Amino acid sequence: MGCAGSSQTKGDGSVKKIRKPKPWKHTQPITKTQLMQMRDEFWDTAPHYGGRKEIWDALRAAAEADLTLAQAIVDSAGVIVQSADLTICYDERGN
């Protein structure tokens, strides 16, 4: 018998498998250099919006890795994945 609020999970507990996000499109054509600059700016400023730098570093490493390695990074960093494409994630503290 379980808790009143418990639910059945699939074999591996509450771990959500990640997947590649849908392709992103800018409103205007941009060069690869511009795209890389935009990515660097995002990752440089992201910790200022909340959360620990270590978690942001783990998310960046996961975003730049293949899916198997990305899953391992997210799992080992204790990141709680709400959206399988990593657009919504939390750390253990809820940040």
Automatic annotation (TrEMBL):
<feature type="compositionally biased region" description="Polar residues">
    <location>
        <begin position="1"/>
        <end position="11"/>
    </location>
</feature>
<dbReference type="InterPro" id="IPR039869">
    <property type="entry name" value="UBTD1/2"/>
</dbReference>
<dbReference type="InterPro" id="IPR038169">
    <property type="entry name" value="DC-UbP/UBTD2_N_sf"/>
</dbReference>
<feature type="domain" description="DC-UbP/UBTD2 N-terminal">
    <location>
        <begin position="16"/>
        <end position="95"/>
    </location>
</feature>
<dbReference type="InterPro" id="IPR032752">
    <property type="entry name" value="DC-UbP/UBTD2_N"/>
</dbReference>
<feature type="compositionally biased region" description="Basic residues">
    <location>
        <begin position="16"/>
        <end position="25"/>
    </location>
</feature>
<dbReference type="Pfam" id="PF16455">
    <property type="entry name" value="UBD"/>
</dbReference>
<feature type="region of interest" description="Disordered">
    <location>
        <begin position="1"/>
        <end position="31"/>
    </location>
</feature>
<protein>
    <recommendedName>
        <fullName>DC-UbP/UBTD2 N-terminal domain-containing protein</fullName>
    </recommendedName>
</protein>
